[in-house]
Structures are given as structure tokens and as C-alpha cells.
Amino acid sequence: MKQILKRTGALLLSLCLTLSVWGVLTPLPAAAAASGDYLYTVNEDNTATITKYLGSGGDVTIPDTLDGHTVTEIDWYAFKDCAVLTSIVVDVNNPNFSSKDGVLFNKDQTKLIRYPQGKSGNYTIPDSVTEIGDLAFSDCTGLTSVTIPDSVTWIEGGAFDGCTGLTSIIIPDSVTSIGYEAFSGCSGLTSFTVGKDNPGYSSKDGVLFNQDQTELVQYPGGKSGSYTIPDSVTMIGYYAFRDCTGLTSVDIPDSVTKIGWYTFSGCTGLTSVTIGDGVTEIEHGAFSGCTGLTSVTIGNSVTEMDDYAFYHCTGLTSVIIPDSVTAIGDYTFYGCTGLTSVTIGDGVTDLSGFDFRSCTGLT
User: Fold this and answer.
1) Which residues are registered as beta bridge partners of 35?
2) Which of 302, 184, 279 minimizes the C-alpha distance to 238?
3) pLDDT tens across 293-343, in order?
């Protein structure tokens, strides 16, 4: 997922930043060093990778060297959380990268690499673009609408993560691949619309599915109320409902066989869940952080509950683990402070000492 910017020409970024907008820095490797306005790491070939910009803003020119180390790479995290960054300008002589209207692209503008986080309003992606890169629009909260042209075939992971100003997305027929969490954290998003001739994806009631609707790919982050997953669905995609805070209840049909990684993580408004009898595994962190969850019915076909499955579900008061369950992972109910009673079925053969740790109400 790391986007590396290789530099052989000057890369200029027009910034209007103060240190106060950065917040807590992303943890860096032990080899990180500081030089002027930058944090950097030294690569195996003795070159430098810039990992963080620390300056006060203005027009910033990426240096040729840092403490004698030639700068060859920029970690995409380097300008993450630049909340007022409105323009990225690339030197016309740079052989690898280019910019247009303040947006960063590869040289031939077939890949959109980074949209400035502080740039607001509507945006139409150029027709030359075939690929929207990892986290290309992440946390662009001022982006209100985006037009994706028919040239785009690939939307990479986290591409629009945290774009809270988006209300709807139209996915054209050309898109054949959408990465995990591409639209997670879009709290204002209420609907997806997919081109009727798209070979890989479809939409129903504003929800994004694969073409034959056997996989629920993404639930809109701003869609509220209760939801019944269609009987055609056998798989709920990883992170599909993550941070859908307006979701109050969900009915999972017997057709679903597995609840994937962090599927409902952070759904704080979710109060009740019925897990159908077809589900055999509740994967890593599936309901972690669902603080409003007070009731969960676990189907009789579940055999495995993975690590962190109900981590910090503070509103959960009681849980019955059916006889079908044989394995409970680490930290499964960690921090469920509202939990007062647990019934463990006959099938469980192994429990971790951390499974119910910090369950202070458990009697």
C-alpha cells in the first residue's frame, strides 16, 4: 500500500501549513533521522527516503541530499495529514511524475497518485487516467463530488477513505477492480450507482456488490437505519461496513458463510445483530468497537471466533456461545465493560486468558 515517489527532478509542493495541523506523527523506524524540515530513513544503498515534512509551509522544494544521502524516494506518508495542502506542482523536467490543476500524477497521467487534502469542491478525473492509486483521495474532506471517467479500470485500496464530503459515487462500466477500504470512512456517502454494463460490479438500494451479488463489497458510510442483507450474498467483504455509524441493526441471512476482517468495525450505532446459521467463522475484529451493540445472536454453525471479534463492544451485556464453536481467538471480548454474563458451549476446547480481560462488569 505504500506509494513511493521516485525523484530525479525537482518536486515542488505549494503548502500553507503550520505544525499544529499535523497532530501525532506516524511511528517511524528506529533508523529515522532529522535534517532541517525533514525526517528521513537511510536505505540499504545509502540513499534517503523522506518520511515526514516538518516545515512551516510555503513553496517547498524536495532537497537533492539530506546529510550527504541522495534523496531518491518519498514515502506517501510524508505529506499525509497536510489538511490545508491545496496544490502539488511537479517540475516539467521530472521524467517520472507530472501535475495538472494541482493534482499529482505519474508522467503520462494514467495514474492519479495524490489529490491535495485541502483542495475542495467538485473534481473530474482526466480521461487519461486508468488507475486511481492507493489512498489517492484519502481524508480529502472538502471533496464534494468526483466524476470517474470510463477510462478508469482500477480503484486501489483506500482510494477515497475518509472523504466525508462525498454523498454519492457513480462507478462506470470500465472499472473491473476495487481495492479494500476504497470508500471506507465516507460518512456522508449514501449511495453507489454502478453502470449497467459493468462486468464486475453492481448496485442495489445504493449498496455496492459484485456483479452477481454474491459478495457485498461496500455499504455506504452515510446510509442509516436497519439493513437486511440479500439472500444472494454468500460473502461480506473485508471492511464492508466499517465505521457505518448510522447503521442500527443488520440481519445476516443463512446464505452468508463468513464475516470477514473488520466487517462491522466501528459501527457505533449498531445495537443488534443476528448472525445466520450459515456463518461458520467470525473473522478478526469483525465487530470490534461496536460500542452500541447490546444484543448479538450467534448462529449454530459458527465454529470459530477469531482475535478481537467483539473487542471493546462496551454495550454488550450478555453473550451465548453455541456448542458449535470450538475455537475462540485472543482478545475476543477484551474491554467489553458492560458484559455481565457469558455462556460458553460444550464445543470450546481452548480459551485465552485475554479473551475476557478488562470485562469489569463480568460477574
Assistant:
1) 38
2) 184
3) 998 999 999 999 999 999 999 999 999 999 999 989 999 999 999 999 999
Distance CA 190, CA 37 (A): 41
* Dihedral (Cα; 341, 346, 350, 356), 10-degree rounding: 0
Report the alpha-carbon distance of residue 160 to residue 361 in Å, rounded.
39
Return the residue matching grid coordinates 454474491.
Answer: 214
Residue 205's Cβ-count burial label (10 Å; 0-12, 13-18, 19+) is exposed
Model confidence at 54, pLDDT cuts 50, 70, 90, reads confident
The CA R_g of the chain, rounded to the nearest whole Å, is 23
Burial (CB < 10 A; 0-12, 13-18, 19+), residue 184, is: buried
Assess whether pLDDT exceeds 70 at residue 169: yes
User: Positive or negative CA dihedral for 340, 346, 348, 349?
Assistant: positive
Q: Alpha-carbon distance 63 to 92, whole Å?
A: 17
- Cα dihedral 208, 239, 274, 201, rounded to 10, equals 20
Give the list of residues 6+ apart from residue 152 with CB closer than 8 angstroms, or none: 125, 129, 130, 131, 132, 172, 174, 175
3-class DSSP assignment, residue 59: strand
For residue 112, give the amino acid letter.
L
User: 150: exposed, middle or buried (C-beta count within 10 Å: 0-12, 13-18, 19+)?
Assistant: exposed
Q: Are 138 and 115 in contact (CB under 8 A)?
A: no
pTM over 0.90: no
Integer angstrom CA distances of residue 161 from 55, 74, 127, 186, 201: 26, 21, 22, 6, 19
End-to-end CA distance of the chain: 44
Dihedral angle computed from the Cα positions of residues 244, 247, 249 and 251, in that order, rounded to the nearest 10 degrees: -60
Reduced to 3 states, what is the DSSP secondary structure of residue 77? helix
Nearest to 178 by CA among 194, 196, 197, 162: 194
* Sheet with strand 111-114: strands edge to edge: 97-100, 103-106, 111-114, 131-132, 154-155, 177-178
**How many beta carbons lie within 10 A of that of residue 269, not counting itself?**
16
